[in-house]
Automatic annotation (TrEMBL):
Pfam families: DUF4159. This is DUF4159 domain-containing protein. Keywords: Signal. The keyword Signal applies. It comes from Polaribacter sejongensis. Residues 20-210 form the DUF4159 domain.
Amino acid sequence: MKKIFVFLFLLSLSTNAQNVAILKYNGGGDWYANPTAIPNLIDFANTNIGTNISKDPQAVNIDSEDVFNFPIIFMTGHGNVLFSDDDANNLRNYLISGGFLHISDNYGLDKFIRRELKKVFPSLELKEIPSNHPIYHQTFKFPNGIPKIHEHNKKPAQGFGLFYEGRLVVFYDYETDLSDGWEDEIIHNNPKSVRETALKMGANIIEFAFKN
């Protein structure tokens, strides 16, 4: 069964290898938060790391086969997240077939996403990703690990991951909210240097996902 999913995933990527998507989920949380974030990140990646990503990211339902069309999907929001059994199974199949999920912790997401990820991989635990991991050392170098972009609870920024058979399949930025840093400057009034740092880390995530 796993080989079938891998084949379908690779087949779907033959024409969509450099597209990205935003994950639509249930539970009432605002999956559509930070609407300028992904378009800005795409523009930055296309300009600075040589990608050729469509400038209009699609939104895909978590239970849809459409997720298999994308090497990376992005997820954020402030409120509740609820995965049905079908949602969890589809997301698991996507990830074990070669897909990659980036979750950006908007304030209020943490307790819900940790709960729901256990439905996707009951036996896996989120692990803090060490600063020497390749995701921090793509085109842009982050020798100290994930940068701090946005303040939530006066806690240090952390990057967590789920590893399936040794491969990083989920990257979760916690207490930093990278996607806030990707938004238009007027929205959060972040200094240019902060936005640039966030975009560089985002570009690394895309680059890592495309390579792995």
